[in-house]
Amino acid sequence: MTTHHEVVIVGAGISGIATAIKLREAGVTDLAIVEKADTYGGTWRANTYPGCACDVPSALYSFSFAPKADWSRVYGKQPEILAYIDQVARAHDLPAVTEFGVEVLEAAWDDSASLWRIDTNVGARTARFVVAAAGPWNEPNIPDIPGLADFEGEVFHSARWNHDYDLTGKRVAVIGSGASAVQFVPEIRKEAERVHLFQRTAHWVLPKPDYTAPGVQKWALGRLPLVNKVVQTVEYGILEGVGAAFHRPKPLMQALQGVGQAYLRTVVRDKKLRAKLTPDYMMGCKRILFSNSYLQALTKPNVDVHATAVEHIRGSTVVGADGTSAEVDAIIIGTGFHILDMPVANRVRGSDGRTLDDHWQGSPEAYLGTVVSGFPNAFIVLGPSLGTAHSSAFSIAEAQVEFIARAVSQAREQGWASLEVSADAQAAYVAEVQAALPGTAYNLSQCHSYYIDRNGRNSFSWPWSTTELTRRVSRFDPSVFEIVRSESVELSA
Q1: How far apart are CA 173 and CA 178, in angstroms?
Q2: Largest interatomic CA distance in the chain
């Protein structure tokens, strides 16, 4: 038996929750959120590793329609963020339209019926509109390391943390030194007998202006809206200043890099270790990391930094490409996610029967990061070319959700059977983005980051300000869409 909804939203994280709430406000009552996990939260549900926290100030890290002012810290930690997301979902009665434990196996557009046919692990669904809100920080990226599958000890990815495994007294290898490792390495080194960090590439680390918010600060932010607004405005301005450094790396990013160099010299006194931790590229072409404890942890006597990629694993020994090795009891993988090679791209088929992956051929693209030519009545939240490396995912998602709500509302009002962005409009937009990226820190040739896809193109980054993103991405323009009208389409009230 097939279940039908006007809108099916895939994913119950920040993006899916915002989409459902705003579509309901627009009058769409027949919608469903399908989520393969058993709770709300998305990436904040999946990442429970020790020390997990946000690197965007808490004042800017909440829904505009459900602001949270009484954060316990300047930068929120995972449990508090997850609790907030869950609270918002329940306050808006989303459990009534959410189906947990439902994984989408394939979604295919049926042109003759002007609807999506969705195959899941618990049965079939159909929908007029589909919103992919699973996000890019969803599927862990497990490196293909010879011998990893045969490792004799414990192995897990940071986004699938095994809390039942006791690290006390263990010898632990950490593969990867990015945003997750920066947070969990300082925590696990307190318990482990020894930590071996295998660092293929050094990262720029800046101090994090974080602290526990005193009671008077929480009271003022929670009870005095003007104070909270001033704090938000100041912090937004600071982040936009950082964004300007990405867009004009010389001299703005060079000045910021000077702060990173001074911080490294102050914390790491050992010259050999400092050399290992000094990046050989300008700050900004990889994600900037923020921590008050990571560099400090690497100076501790029970931490070894191997400035090399892992070549192979032999028995219980991890061997680096430079010949160094470490015998360990456990391996923790901190190599991030499938950002630009999202597994969902192989599960969605458009009007020509080809998947998103077939269309993209390794270089994801979408008009305004939200709609793709060849995929009618389908939307992506936090899609290609919307990464800013400095601003809140909430603001990006909300801009897209406003676009989606306007598109769906107009389709319902006008009796459109389908709407699909034209290939020409998409190509022109992608060309404009790509033309603006050269000269930014994102596209510096000195390093290879997850911003760059397998074809060597930056399919991740937004080259302009967050203000411009919000203004532009939230605007729905029917003139760039190919619209099929049908009087036979049944519209939900």
Answers
A1: 14
A2: 74
Residue 119 and residue 126: Cα distance in Å, rounded? 9
**Strand pairing category for 171-175 and 330-333:** parallel
Of the candidates 396, 379, 383, 420, the residue with the CA atom closest to the CA atom of residue 131: 379
Q: Tell me the per-residue pLDDT of 109-125, one tens digit each, with 9 for 90 and over.
A: 999 999 999 999 999 99
Token look-up 């959120």 returns 33
Residues 378 and 400: beta-carbon distance below 8 Å:
no
Q: What are phi and psi of 281, to 5 degrees?
A: -135, 160
Q: CB of 121 within 8 A of CB of 102? A: yes
Q: Is 167:192 a contact under the CB 8 Å cutoff? A: yes
Closest CA to 188 of 267, 307, 55, 302: 302
- Confirm whether pTM is higher than 0.85: yes
Give yes or no for a contact between 12 and 89, defined as CB atoms under 8 angstroms apart: yes
Q: What share of the chain is helix, strand, coil (3-state, %, to 5)?
A: 35, 20, 45
Model confidence pLDDT, tens digit, residues 396-455: 999 999 999 999 999 999 999 999 999 999 999 999 999 999 999 999 877 788 999 999
8 Å CB contact between 186 and 51: yes
Q: Which of 425, 348, 368, 107 is nearest to 360 (CA)?
A: 348
361 neighbors 377 (Cβ within 8 angstroms): no
The span from the CA of 450 to the CA of 346, in Å, is: 19
* Unique residue bearing structure tokens 């290992």: 276
3-class SS of residue 192: coil
Give the number of other Cβ atoms within 10 Å of residue 297's Cβ.
21
* Residue recorded with tokens 């300008």: 282
Q: Residues 340, 343, 348, CA angle at the centre, nearest 5°?
A: 105
> How far is the C-alpha of 217 from the C-alpha of 226, rounded, in Å?
13
Q: How far is CA 204 from CA 52, 235, 353, in A?
A: 19, 21, 44
Domains belonging to the chain, first-starting first, are 3-139+338-485 (3.50.50.60), 148-203+287-333 (3.50.50.60)
CA–CA distance, 436 with 146 (Å, rounded to integer): 40
Rg (alpha carbons) of the chain, rounded to whole number: 23
